[in-house]
Design a protein that fits this description.
alpha/beta; eight-stranded parallel barrel; 11 helices
Length: 243
């Protein structure tokens, strides 16, 4: 993460070549917001220091489906990027890191094969973010459709030992609903692991952003609230800079 404190990271989620936002991760709930490169450039112009890219088709199908759109964003921007969705092997991750992605976000692959985190981290230090998406207190995989039978805290401890650079924690119960965040799960994760926790899911107001900072998160990924104009990226950055 950036050395200057809590970071607000805009999400650029791509489905069928377009930026979209889903409600609670469910296909069919998406709302489209246009061209990924235009969205990425808008967030950078607004002060974004990192971009969170997601290949949603990859997340659901298990193989990357928006290579051209993602590549176009990587070529167009000059800030660090983290990419998740459809990355299932160490070779996939290595290809992306060599292509110019700064960090790969592993969800299903890390749950099914934890050693992949160590394998990638040994070859590319500080390059793996493990995505822990939780429904009803359990980690879920396969595009948020299947329970992994493990709690986020147990999983975070495991991946920290395997060399993960950070944990991306998404609370699916509140994701995309603009109804606010749940800070207790974030606080528990922060207390359980020494690596940074990036929070995601449910951010609707500047107060939500501040609450996640207060809970100890190193950063927050924001999608729907920014795209719907609930607040601007400049306002969010200013809100945490005030603290």
């Amino acid at each position: 993460m950036q050395p200057n404190g809590f970071e607000v990271i805009p999400a650029v989620d791509v489905q069928d070549g377009e930026v979209v936002q889903l409600v609670q991760g469910e296909r069919g709930t998406e709302k489209a917001y246009g061209d990924p490169v235009e969205a990425a450039e808008r967030w950078i112009d607004a002060g974004a220091e990192t971009l969170h890219l997601v290949d949603l088709d990859g997340a659901f199908e298990g193989e990357r489906g928006n290579e051209d759109a993602i590549d176009a964003v990587i070529d167009a921007v000059d800030v660090p990027t983290q990419l998740g969705g459809g990355i299932r092997t160490a070779a996939d991750a290595a290809d992306l890191l060599e292509r110019g992605v700064d960090r790969v976000v592993l969800g299903t692959a890390a749950v099914e094969n934890p050693d992949i985190v160590a394998e990638i981290s040994e070859a590319h230090p500080d390059s793996v973010v493990v995505s822990l998406d939780a429904k009803n207190g359990e980690v879920v995989v396969e595009g948020w459709t299947e329970s992994a039978g493990i709690s986020p805290v147990e999983a975070a401890e495991r991946y920290a030992e395997l060399g993960a650079a950070a944990i991306l924690f998404t609370n699916v119960d509140v994701e995309g609903r603009l109804e606010g965040v749940a800070t207790d799960p974030v606080r528990k994760l922060v207390e359980a692991t020494e690596i940074p926790v990036i929070a995601s899911g449910g951010v609707a107001t500047l107060e939500d952003v501040r609450a996640l900072e207060d809970a100890g998160a190193a950063a927050v990924v924001v999608g729907t609230a920014l795209y719907e104009g609930e607040f601007t990226l400049e306002e969010a950055r200013a809100a945490v800079d005030e603290d």
